[in-house]
Amino acid sequence: MRRRILFLTIAFITFIIQIMIVHYVFLPDSMEKVTILDEGWDVNYNDTYFHDIRLSELRKLIGNSTNKGDTIILSRDMKGINNYQTPTLLFESRFSAYRVLVGDRIIEEKFEDLLKDNKFVGCDNNFIQMPTGVESSIIRIELHVAEDDAYNYFEAPIFGSYMDVLHYTIFSNLFVVITSVFLIIFGLLFFAIAVAFRSTVPEIDMQSYSSLLFITLGIWFLSQFKLLDFFIDTGDHQTEIEYISLYITVPFMYMVMGSMQNYLHSKLFWGFALTGSIVIMIPIMSHFSGWLHINRFLGLYQLDAMVFFIFMLIMLFRDIKRKRITRYQTIQLVGITMLAIAFLFNVLFYLLEVAGISEQIILSKKAVPLGVLAMVFANLVNYYIYIAQSFARKKEYSSLTHLAYADGLTDLANRSRYEKYIDGLYKKGDDFCLISIDLNGLKVINDNAGHLMGDKYIREFGQVLTECMEGKCFAARIGGDEFVVVLTGDELFSAEQFIREMNEKLERMNATDHSMIRSAATGYAFRSEVEGNGHEVYLLADERMYNNKRHMHKELKMPER
Fold first, then answer.
1. What is the DSSP letter of 39?
2. Contact 544, 495 (CB under 8 A)
3. CA–CA separation, 41 and 75 (whole Å)
């Protein structure tokens, strides 16, 4: 077990390293062909003018985050705009309507109608195809802010040919893209497997909730980095999807923890879980009712998530004290803890950004995806342990069942298994043929050669029946030297053939081993011949077997029992 977990750990680390190599080493040439437009901007912020500045320094010049109703006009000279076949400007708009102009010509404008109606305006990466052959090279971006704290820091626009800008966007976010797609696909497959195993492994509920959490986080990553529109048409609802997917992570985290630690029967747990879920539903309902936009509840979500984190620590501390945490639960808890720490790290830098102290660093943006991958790895290990234990239990149960219903000497079914099998045939109403078999001369062999030789006789005859069966019929040892064979379906009328084949095998065995003479008396009967239960069929077959036995004893000059 430890060796396999080690192999999974190595595979996980290798996966992360490969993503990093692709992300930072194997970059296309187009990454160097784009221009990051951070310098040389003239900015008009609410009639306050700033000349020739860096956008990355604008927050320091303004002194605070933007507010609802602010107007920001960014302009710069874009000499060389005509040198590109498909010149494209990429800029991020955050909760604001925008207008892009070249000279006095409006190239594109969006969301002005939503702004006038006080409707929600989200965030997006905007690809603006610039005109060629124009006289003026002055580009102006007008932003009309619709929400408070829309721009804590200003991202520099990107300029280049369309394909180069597109490649830059994808490859600069490659880690997030790969992680998100992996989480969604993995979550869907994992959920399907969990549902399939649920009837045999009840504990797999935790895996089901984990898979839903992975899918939700994958969607959140794509929408948070403005990449979801590359995969599906969100109809300008990408930001709403971002906040909804973020908010519902808390209920999923509660369910993962509850099913993992078996808290689903605890009133205390359900009190916290339901409260946390209701709190999350408030911003969603408020947003779609038009009362208050969903992004205004981010602080409420962070508080709700913090309550979950503290509740989890308290409950886990209690369980550790009571020694209620198993090995596989420890693995899962490590994954959940790493995800929680990653969220806290991300929130810390977000608050620093809002306060204007520091812009989010690369690690803070990638912390949550890394935390989720750690949780995925913990789930894989946990899932492996679940399945391994499930199959071990199933194998043990199968072994115990076999011992309960198998004859210890011949490994054929015993009387209990035979009676259960016949009852099943009667309930289904199927016709069957029952062959009663009794070994000849067993008592003589036991008396003269000993019981070990008698056991050999029984064991060898059991092997003969097994070879004759070949999966076509049912055979059981129901007494010391008494056996039954049940024929059904296509084999219903092959009793004579079965008996003939059995006798031929016994004769070949006698020819090669002269230590004893092996033979068996037989008699068979059909269910359709008698009225009553399976016992009546057996009595008729047994009566015919004894008639055959008396005949054989006369021929072999053996004393009758």
1. S
2. no
3. 6
* Separation CA 310–CA 154 (nearest Å): 34
For the chain, the domain total comes to: 3
Does any domain span residue 274? yes
Q: Indicate whether 23 belongs to any domain.
A: no
User: What is the per-residue pLDDT for 437?
Assistant: 93
**Amino acid letter, residue 430:** D
Query: 169, 203, 237 — which closes off a domain?
Result: 169
Q: Which residues contact 397 (CB under 8 A, 6 or more apart)?
A: none
> Residue for token digits 């369309």?
162
Q: Say yes or no: 337 and 246 in one domain.
A: yes
Instruction: Give me the CATH number covering residue 472.
Output: 3.30.70.270
What's the domain range around 191?
173-397
Instruction: Give the sheet arrangement for strand 35-36, strand by strand.
Output: 35-36, 158-161, 87-94, 123-129
Same domain, 340 and 380: yes
**Cα–Cα distance, 203 to 63 (Å, whole number):** 54
Q: Could you give the CA distance from residue 150 to residue 66 in angstroms, rounded to a whole number?
A: 6
Alpha carbon distance 422, 430 (integer Å): 10
Same domain? For 151 and 188 the reply is no
Spatial strand order in the sheet of 41-45: 48-53, 41-45, 71-77, 138-145, 96-102, 105-110
> Over pLDDT 90: what percentage of the chain?
33
Grouping H, G, I as helix, E, B as strand and the rest as coil, residue 224 is helix
Residue finishing a domain among 169, 195, 224: 169
Asked, for residue 386, whether it belongs to a domain, the answer is: yes
Give the three-class secondary structure for 478: coil
Q: Which residue has the higher pLDDT, 519 or 323?
A: 519
Q: What is the reported pLDDT for 294? A: 93
Q: Copy the structure tokens of residue 542.
A: 């047994």
Q: pTM for the complete prediction?
A: 0.67
427 and 321: one domain? no
182 contacts: CB under 8 Å, gap ≥ 6: 218
Q: How far is CA 233 from the centre of its chain?
A: 25
Say how many C-beta atoms besides its own lie within 10 A of residue 117's C-beta: 8
Q: What's the one-letter identity of residue 228?
A: L
- Residue 92 contacts residue 226 (beta carbons within 8 Å): yes
Q: What value does the mean pLDDT of the chain take?
A: 83
Name the 3-class secondary structure at 442. helix
For strands 123-129 and 41-45, give the pairing. Answer: unpaired
Specify which residues 486 forms β-bridges with.
Answer: 434, 474
Judgement on whether residues 189 and 116 belong to the same structural domain of the protein: no
Query: Containing H/E element for 129?
Result: strand 123-129
Closest CA to 356 of 110, 108, 57, 95: 57
Phi, psi of 200, deg, nearest 5? -100, -20
Spatial CB neighbours of 399, under 8 Å, sequence gap ≥ 6: none
H helices present in 406-441, as ranges: 415-428
Q: What is the CATH number of the domain that holds 85?
A: 2.60.120.260
